[in-house]
Specification:
This protein is α/β, with parallel strands linked by helices and 475 residues long. The protein is 43% helix and 16% strand. It is built from 20 helices and 13 strands. The protein has helices at 11-22, 39-47, 63-79, 88-101, 115-118, 125-136, 152-160, 181-190, 197-207, 211-214, 223-232, 241-249, 254-263, 272-279, 287-296, 320-328, 339-343, 347-362, 365-371, 422-439; strands at 27-32, 51-56, 108-113, 143-149, 172-175, 270-271, 300-304, 313-317, 379-385, 394-401, 405-412, 444-451, 466-469. It has a 5-stranded parallel beta sheet with strand order 2-3-4-1-5, with helices on both faces. Strand 10 (394-401) and strand 11 (405-412) form a beta hairpin. Helix 4 (88-101) packs parallel to helix 6 (125-136) and helix 9 crosses helix 16 (320-328).
């Protein structure tokens, strides 16, 4: 396995791939994650030197197109003399012949990228893949078969949780997540882009930790200029990304988009019944599948309010780029090409950033726990909204710890130290009192401030027992 310094982060994933590559048996690995998260790049950079075969499915390609493309790759990798396959069974038989012909002594890497697109209706792709692994590859000791796709739900449903011939055949799986703030910072540095952590955070609040989006950044531009150049200019590379995003991930994506847009209408999220009412998708109309697919792909989170039963689940849109597109994308035509450069100094920007920072924090709960010194403490993650004492009061992040402490997290994004004044201090006290009264908890509930640059020292700041700063989120 090659060790390429071009790979930023992904330490645990690289270690797993190395283990699979070095093992004394054949391995069958499923790799999945949302579009543009860097799945193909990771495998090419980490294992490219070991490729014996690589093929990628073609978006919206017919069965004939997919098979023709596979045949061409067979020829490209040394199978020019093999008769072009007329079906997937023949295609995988040719692949087995390639493996037999290979003189490579180390693991022979077979990478099937965007496999969900290869699996066209009634094509027989899955049964042929099943036969190839069970009859040929698994009987050897030198094959590393990796099946990959942005349609994470397809990989999980048809490969990971397959109930047919592939049942329990996988020897490993990797769900590739978006970059963390720490990985984003390392990525910008590797590109020669020198921006402070405050701006790394704002870039995350817009584009998420998606490497493909970040790759459009130019070192000569400020953050605001980069946002305009990447999203708002007439021919900006991500100007139409939202339109293409869900279509590339899900077949019949209309329902997914309806759910996403319904969830975007309320920061706190919606219950299942509220989603049904907002979208018109019936309980038996595939809603469970849509929610599972959106959750698996990282667009939404499923959680429950503190003190509620497991059945009282809520769903919240937490993908930064999707939220950004829904907030600003529909009005792109009305915006100037330097919109963000003008917008970033307005009060409206501060209002947007406040909620976007909360989403950033929800994406970095492990880092918050580490900053609080509770990484090794069993911790439940909840939210809470008052229904009795103060109907407008809510806490978007509640950490219920196994050591009998509850952190009531308040998240504030500011360009300097955040000042707690008398009114906000009273608000915090009222919110904590309402939480204690309505939940009836006997645990110690402590207000926890998560801010960019910390709290300005004053008489009110002194009463805050826990603080987490932006730098802590880069750990």
């Amino acid at each position: 396995m090659q060790n390429d310094v071009r790979i930023i982060g992904r330490k645990s994933e690289q270690e797993l791939l190395q283990e699979y590559y070095d093992s004394n048996r054949s391995e069958f690995i499923a790799l999945y994650g949302r579009r543009r998260v860097g799945k193909t790049f990771l495998i090419r950079e980490a294992l490219g030197a070991g490729f014996v075969f690589y093929a990628s499915g073609i978006l919206d390609g017919t069965g004939a197109v997919q098979l023709a493309n596979f045949n061409q790759e067979i020829a490209n990798y040394g199978g020019k003399d093999l008769a072009p396959a007329k079906n997937w069974n023949e295609a995988f038989y040719n692949l087995n012949t390639l493996l037999t012909m290979s003189k490579k002594k180390e693991k022979k890497v077979v990478f099937l990228d965007e496999a969900p697109w290869m699996n066209t209706p009634k094509s027989g792709f899955l049964s042929a893949l099943d036969h190839f692994w069970n009859r040929f590859a698994s009987m050897r000791k030198d094959v590393l078969l990796i099946i990959c796709g942005s349609a994470a739900s397809w990989i999980i449903d048809h490969v990971v949780n397959n109930t047919g011939g592939l049942h329990n055949r996988l020897t490993g799986e990797i769900c590739l997540q978006a970059f963390t703030l720490q990985e984003c910072e390392a990525y910008y540095r590797a590109k020669g882009i020198d921006i402070p952590r405050y701006q790394v955070a704002e870039a995350y609040m817009i584009f998420g930790g998606i490497p493909y989006y970040m790759d459009f950044f130019k070192a000569k531009f400020s953050l605001a200029q980069n946002v305009d150049d990447i999203f708002f200019k007439e021919n900006a590379p991500l100007r139409n990304e939202y339109t293409n995003l869900f279509r590339s991930l899900f077949r019949n994506a209309e329902g997914h988009i309806r759910v996403i847009e319904a969830l975007a209408s309320r920061n706190y999220g919606k219950s299942r019944d509220e989603i049904i009412a907002a979208t018109g998708i019936a309980e038996g109309g595939g809603l469970s599948k849509i929610l599972d697919e959106l959750k698996t792909s990282g667009f939404i989170r499923e959680y429950r309010a503190f003190g509620k039963k497991k059945k009282d689940r809520l769903y919240q849109l937490i993908d930064p780029f999707t939220l950004f597109c829904l907030r600003f994308g529909s009005q792109q035509e009305a915006y100037s090409e330097d919109f963000w450069l003008r917008f970033c100094t307005t009060p409206a920007h501060a209002a947007w950033a406040g909620y976007a920072f909360e989403i950033l924090c929800l994406q970095h709960v492990p880092q918050i726990r580490k900053a609080l010194g509770i990484s090794g403490v069993l911790t439940g993650v909840f939210a809470w909204k008052s229904k009795i004492h103060d109907p407008g009061a809510q806490i978007d992040l509640v950490l219920e710890r196994g050591d009998q402490v509850i952190n009531l997290c308040e998240m504030k994004y500011a360009s300097s130290e955040y000042t707690i004044d008398k009114a906000y201090d009273q608000n915090l006290r009222n919110k904590r009192s309402a939480f204690l009264a309505e939940t009836g908890t006997r645990k110690s509930a402590q207000t926890t401030m998560i801010t960019t640059y910390g709290l300005r020292k004053n008489v009110y700041q002194a009463g805050i027992p826990f603080e987490v700063h932006l730098d802590d989120l880069f750990m």
